[in-house]
Amino acid sequence: MGKSKAARRLLWGGACVVAGLVGFTAWAIKPAIAPVTPPAPISFDTTEIQRGEKLAAAGYCVTCHTAAGGKPFAGGLPMVTGFGTIYTTNITPDAATGIGSWSLAAFTRAMHEGVARDGSHLFPAFPYDRFTKTSNEDVKALYAYLMSQPAVSQAPKAPDMPFPLNVRLLQAGWKLLFFKEGRYEPVTTQTAEWNRGAYLAEGLAHCASCHTPRNALGAEKTGDARYAGAVVDGWFAPALNASNNSPVPWNADELYSYLRKGGTAYHGVAAGPMSHVVYQGMALVDDSDVHAVAHYFASMNGSASRNVDVAQVVAGALARSRFDASQTVERGANVYAAACAACHYNALSGPQAARPELGLKSSLSAADPTNLVNVILHGVSLKEGLPEAMMPAFGTALTNDDIAALVTYLRKTRTDLPPWQGVAQLVAKQRDDAKKN
Fold first, then answer.
1. Other CB atoms closer than 10 Å to residue 148's CB: what's the count?
2. For the whole model, what pTM was predicted?
3. Of the CATH numbers 2.40.50.140, 3.30.70.240, 1.10.10.10, 1.10.760.10, which one belongs to the domain with range 194-214+225-437?
4. For 114-158, what is each residue's pLDDT tens digit?
């Protein structure tokens, strides 16, 4: 009797598993949407195209969908993930290799549900979990803009991912766990400016995609980890929440100046991927929208409640940067005196955006030294940071030990924060990774 009951339970359990798999498969399989003839640019309203251009900038479409040296929006940019390398797709209106045969309905489904025209599930490297918040009207304008761009014939590259991670159907399982489809809903207790900033930041601009750490399955963490900072593309996207301990708070004015101008005297300059946000993204966005995004993040990072005496903080940073001959017994101090002091010494003039006071820079107060290491290794080009200002790369002039000593010295003498661990190993890794790329 016992064996009979056990057999029945096993049979019922197996049947439930089979039924569940059949149900999941039926739900996961999405129908293809019929192809269309690429719409002529003249069929779109000029005003809508222009609005779509700004929306594309806010979403950094050209940044992600353009390979180094490639045609705009033609795809091919490698995105290295913990599961393999994914190459961005061609989103020009080429019918054979791009999205020229996609109707507005197909484009909207991709943006809102993460499903391609042929019914296949998109990998979440395409941040549809953020784009789903974008309104139908804005998706329509974005579609009009992209369909008005020059068509480029460039076949997409297949993802370099091991089986079964490369099976598109399995992405539906990821969606069941982590994806919530739906448009942005305004918060009635907040102002119109706050809601506009939240709509852009949480949706099309997908700020959380870089500034929020991810779990083992590649989904954004929630709770206190939201906007807590994360390593992305070899850089550290700093915390945008209250855990950011920059000496001078990131208030709305500082955030606006950084996003609009590429840097501030109190926080340093944009470099690496963040320079694309400034110059390929926010540069084309309306001023009111940049203000709105700055206002939104300032409201969540606790800057208004920190009660920091900025003048005192600045005075302290200037005092720490004054040359002390006794420090030159340290290797890092000698490297600083030889390579850095001439440009980063502000004396009594006060900090200047074009020559950042290192004791105020976010890269020195961050929980991770990656950005400081990268800037020393690779510099800040004229295309990054502030217009007509640059920092030379010291990767060829300084050894790994020199840079590690410099980074350790700056953290110790310019902040009261605990020392970073594993600096020497990080410097070697960042240099090696740059050679590979």
1. 20
2. 0.90
3. 1.10.760.10
4. 999 999 999 999 999 999 999 999 999 999 999 999 999 999 999
Give the pLDDT score at 163.
84
Residue type, 25: T
Report the Cα–Cα distance between both ends of the chain, in Å, rounded: 66
Residues 6+ apart with CB under 8 A from 298: 250, 251, 252, 255, 304
Determine the Cα angle at 45 with ends 288 and 111, to 5°: 65
SS3 readout for 255-288:
HHHHHHHCEECCCEECCCHHHHHHHHHHHHCCHH
CB environment 37-63: b (16+ within 10 A), e (fewer): ebbeeeebeeebbebbbbbbbbbbbbb
Kindly give, in sequence order, each residue whose CB lies less than 8 Å from that of residue 100, ignoring residues fewer than 6 positions away.
Answer: 38, 92, 93, 94, 147, 151
420 contact partners, CB below 8 Å, separation of at least 6: 368, 369, 407, 408, 411
| Tokens linked to 35 | 């192809």
Low-confidence ranges of the chain (pLDDT < 70): 1-28, 323-328, 347-349, 437
Q: Which residues, in sequence order, are bridge partners of residue 79?
A: 86
Please state the domain extents for the chain: 41-174, 194-214+225-437
Task: Give residue 383's pLDDT.
Answer: 85
Q: Token pair for residue 313?
A: 């903080």
pLDDT at 10 (0 to 100): 59
Assigned token pair, 420: 């970073």
